Amino acid sequence: MTITLRLKRDPAVPLEAEVLSPDVLRDLSNDDIRRLTVYHGKRQLRLDEFFDVEGERSCDLVLHGALHKVRWIGRAMTRGSVTVHGAVGMHLGAGMKGGTIEVHGDASDWVGAEMKGGLIRVHGNAGGQVGAAYRGSLAGMKNGTILIGGSAGLEVGMRMRRGTIVIGHAAKDFVGLQMKGGTILLCKGAEIRTGAWMVRGTIISLVPLKTLPTFREGTRYNPVVINLLARYLNELGINLPWSAADGSYLRYSGDTAIPGKGEILVWQPRVNVGD
To answer: What is the rounded distance in angstroms from the CA atom of residue 125 to the CA atom of residue 148?
Structure first.
């Protein structure tokens, strides 16, 4: 049985709701769920002051409403599913270890921050620091997949070690900042300073991308990793254009200011002989 929560009262200030996780709710009765504590600013209040609750004892959670002030949904979850119909607040799926989160709307900053596994899919736009490390932390996401259908803000994948991030539209500055591993796919490119202080990992752009002068231009080739990534995304219902999946890419290595051993692969249009 699915647990369904509908927002009935808009929070006046951010609502800290770490309890909105399948790990917390899976063994609770309907009454127990209603009595759970959330933080409205500094005040501890019951969950049912903000949500109507239906269902009980399930690992599948469905949320309805404008939840842009509701934070920490799915924090450190290890199983089950969370489906959100509406916008969500900061720290969605932070520290997540397993399960799936799907958002039919936009998400704020720190989507999947320091996640360790699972799948997050946001059909709208995302804020900054997708899959990134928190301030002072050495590592961002260590595994898992984050799919953003729209655009994304600053510092996507900052200090990430493993995992996959896909941004459907443009991202802002500092994609892959201090990146240590993993893969970031930019379907519509990014703004400036992509890969700054990058140590390892792969950033792929399906459109022309301005690289930092500390990245060395290398060879043009057809990387196998693109084909493998395209197959993986196809299993998730995302189809890359054939020209991208089987295309030619120009490889940049760096960031030599570190010196780093990362790579940025930029798709190159086919040149027809005789044109």
So the answer is: 7
Provide mean pLDDT across the span 7-13: 96
Task: Look at residue 10 in the predicted model and tell me its pLDDT.
Answer: 94
Cβ-Cβ contacts under 8 Å for 64 (sequence gap 6 or more)? 4, 5, 6, 7, 85, 86
pLDDT of residue 140 exceeding 70, the answer is yes
Query: Considering the entire predicted model, what is its pTM?
Result: 0.96
User: CB neighbours of 268 closer than 8 A, spacing ≥ 6?
Assistant: 220, 247, 248, 249, 250
List Cβ neighbours of 184 (8 Å cut-off, separation of 6 or more): 156, 157, 160, 164, 165, 166, 167, 175, 176, 201, 202, 203, 204
Domain ranges of the chain: 90-268
